[in-house]
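Quick one: Undecaprenyl-phosphate glucose phosphotransferase from Pontibacter ruber, structure tokens please.
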Amino acid sequence: MNRYRHYSNINRIFLLILDITLIAFAFKISNLFRYGNLELEHQYSIFFVMFGLMWWIVSGFKNFVFRVDGFVPLEKKFANLLNAFILHAFLLASCIVIFNLEQLSRLLLLYTYLSTALLIGFSRLVLAQVNKYFTRSDMAYSRFVIVGTGPAAIALYQTFNNNDNPGTKFMGFFDDEPDMNSPYSNLVKGSVDDLKEFCLQNSIDEVYYTLPLNNKEQIDELSAFADDNFLYLRIVPDFSAIVQRDVNMYFYNNIPMISIRKEPLEMITNRLVKRAFDIVFSLGVILFMFPILLPIIALAIRISSPGPIFFKQLRPGKKNRLFVCYKFRTMRVNNQTELQATKNDPRITRVGAFLRKTNLDELPQFFNVLLGDMSVVGPRPNLVSQLDHYSKVITKYKIRHFVTPGITGYAQVSGFRGETKEVHLMEKRVEYDVKYMENWSFMMDMRIIFLTVWNMIKGEKNAY
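--- reply ---
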């Protein structure tokens, strides 16, 4: 809604100013703890500007960092903040290395991050409570009613009620034939004929129409009434009979369309962002890590067992198109390449076990990413034999192939990697792959990459 878009823009500007103020305060407090005074030295003043600039950039990636309304659950708000701080730390560390700012006090940096996180986190908690109080008070500037008491009406009411829609207040249901056994029957204020008088007497701003759309005369009459009295009439179609899950609705010119499966990567802008990141990230790994690690790993592989340095194998990619997937060879040369690796697999060499444990065997796949066959993050490409088998026994198995496969994925960082002896293990992996597709965001990719690196450091029991 336009007024909510206006609210959102003001909200973002206000919270950005508040965040920068809190960051400045955090710098002062941290300097006091570290050096005993509030005055920042010149280098730390420059660092403060860089710190604030990085926060502004990060907030641009994740709009929900600036959400205090109830449409985003409290735990989700703090998860967004945590993701934002992780990305912020990554960008800031890169700037420190690039601009050679290593003389900065690590202790001051730690104090600053802790105090900034506490201050911003606490501010969001306070603002969320203030928003909740404002929403439920008589100061709410937008009052709305719902026409109808069917499933769509109840679902709409529950959504607004649970999410504390910013600055709005529910004033009642209107229906000619309400269900008096409904737990919400006490909220019915009258029939549809009573609606007009009620709206005028109670300064109603918005009317949500959830009845069947076959009564054109009634809809036209309410539309004319709304126009004459400066009300917003919102028509909420009831698709509950044909749609049983979250969907995407969009317009092609003036034609409304519904996408049954929610998939953010359907949007070309999201695909461009993901592809641009894949190119930059894979080029970085190929140019800076590969030249150093390749000679060491190649020598170790050759010493451990005779055979090629690289292992290549056909894997199903996006829409089941086969591509040549590259890895460092971790097994002795054998004729059982379509057989999944198992714990204590005799085919795996000692060097191969280390490469698998640390995920270093996947490094050549960054060339696959650069070529466009893979992404840095996405569902892991399974064996061709697994595709043939599991697509017949797992209902949603093929859905994971709607997106480009990845070097690492949501299922892998959630504990579902390694051998899949039983069907239910693959079902869980597919479940997480589908969740990734339906909830993709740039910050989600950053979190998965961070967790992948963290798992490489601490080790995983299922990595073999």
